[in-house]
Inverse folding.
């Protein structure tokens, strides 16, 4: 049984639930402006405009097979034993001349996949059901009218909206843009995001380290997560635990659209982030969330700039990123769809927790006979970064619930749901 302990959350004015936090964040965001980028650089970016087609795709009725363009009526009753013979009057290659080719009763035109259907023909017989000798083709099977013909506009109709504003482009969309002759496309600008780590105990990669110190991991998990969402990370280094150094980093960070700090937001004597925010006039919207891990988490705004003071513990940093920073980035870069999928799964162990918060428990889901099952990753300490490494989902146990048992259905949020084994 997994038992998650912790003290009871005290009620403060700036304490919010997870849902309230997301609403406050999304309501304070104004999407960024648009920019033109090459379609080769557009993957994952959100469209700044609807894409309307000015052509039919395919532009002409064309053949879906290699074979012969015929009049379907002419092939009626054809079989292997009683083939019907048609005289071949020409040939059309994909991309070749077609205007001068005409199919009349008793004739056929040799045709390749993708080539336009000649005038008069209303079907294509596959080459596999034919045999040709001296410009006479024997047809071994009948075809129905329209068979093996791809109709003009069956993929995309002229004047139709092919892709809508706010859609995040994926490979098929990039292909559609190419089909429509777009070399570049208007997308929302990606936010510039400053990353600042705080703490006297934090050592940078490669630095000498004393026994009391820990390596900076947060800046790198955030950097990687930001890239995943097409934001532009700017890593500003570690601010030592003084007001002056923290403020200096903040001033550099104000060039960016979003500022992320990690650590320095608890109640400790050396937690200076709050003081600096107050000094710079950043308006705090909340500073405590009824969740675990990740309770101390500050969100503030300054004009259109967003500030997130993420908790320092590595798992808290990551879970706060997924729940709050990720949707903020997506909304800022114009994306319409911002929710991670949540599905129902059968829990494989008992879980006990405090009811006054939402818990995000690192889990591993499997799919067996089409059903989702989930186990926890074990110890849930907010410093156990390796648990995030093995997790592929978060088990969400909402506020108000203190226990769930093996066999119960729980909601799981699919955070790393790419390929499964
Ligand atoms: P704080 O909120 O500053 O007290 O930080 C809480 C804990 O998070 C610290 O005790 C550190 O162990 C850890 N921590 C803070 N910043 C980082 C970081 N950049 N990388 C890894 N761990 C960190
Ligand atoms: Mg600290």
């Amino acid at each position: 049984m997994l038992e998650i302990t912790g003290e009871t959350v005290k009620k403060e004015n700036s304490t919010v639930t997870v849902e309230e936090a997301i609403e406050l964040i999304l309501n304070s965001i104004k999407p960024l402006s648009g920019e033109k980028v090459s379609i080769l650089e557009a993957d994952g970016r959100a469209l700044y405009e609807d894409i309307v087609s000015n052509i039919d795709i395919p532009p002409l009725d064309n053949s879906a097979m290699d074979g012969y363009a015929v009049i379907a009526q002419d092939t009626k009753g054809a079989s292997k034993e009683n083939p019907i013979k048609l005289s071949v009057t020409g040939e059309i290659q994909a991309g070749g001349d077609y205007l001068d080719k005409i199919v009349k009763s008793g004739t056929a035109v040799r045709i390749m996949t993708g080539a336009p259907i000649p005038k008069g023909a209303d079907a294509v017989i596959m080459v596999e059901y034919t045999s040709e000798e001296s410009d006479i083709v024997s047809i071994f099977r009948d075809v129905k009218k329209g068979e093996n013909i791809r109709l003009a506009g069956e993929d995309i109709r002229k004047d139709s909206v092919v892709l809508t504003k706010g859609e995040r482009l994926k490979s098929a969309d990039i292909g559609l843009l190419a089909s429509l002759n777009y070399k570049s496309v208007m997308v929302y600008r990606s936010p510039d995001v400053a990353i600042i780590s705080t703490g006297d105990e934090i050592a940078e990669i490669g630095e000498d380290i004393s026994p009391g110190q820990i390596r900076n991991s947060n800046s790198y998990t955030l950097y990687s997560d930001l890239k995943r969402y097409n934001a532009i990370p700017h890593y500003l280094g570690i601010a030592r635990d003084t007001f002056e150094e923290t403020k200096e980093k903040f001033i550099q960070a104000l060039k960016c659209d979003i500022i992320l700090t990690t650590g320095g937001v608890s109640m400790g004597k050396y937690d200076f982030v709050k003081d600096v925010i107050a000094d710079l006039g950043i308006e705090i919207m909340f500073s405590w969330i009824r969740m675990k891990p990740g309770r101390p988490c500050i969100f503030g705004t300054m004009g259109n700039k967003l500030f997130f003071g993420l908790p320092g513990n590595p798992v808290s940093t990551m879970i706060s990123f997924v729940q709050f920073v990720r949707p903020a980035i997506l909304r800022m870069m114009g994306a319409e769809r911002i929710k991670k999928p949540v599905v129902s799964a059968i829990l494989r162990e008992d879980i006990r927790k405090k009811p006054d918060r939402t818990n995000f428990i690192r889990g591993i889901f499997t799919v067996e006979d089409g059903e989702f099952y989930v186990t926890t990753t074990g110890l849930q300490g907010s410093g156990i970064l390796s648990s995030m490494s093995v997790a592929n989902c978060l088990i969400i146990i909402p506020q108000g619930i203190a226990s769930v048992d093996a066999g119960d259905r729980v909601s799981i949020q699919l955070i790393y749901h790419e390929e499964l084994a």
Notes: The chain has a mean pLDDT of 95.
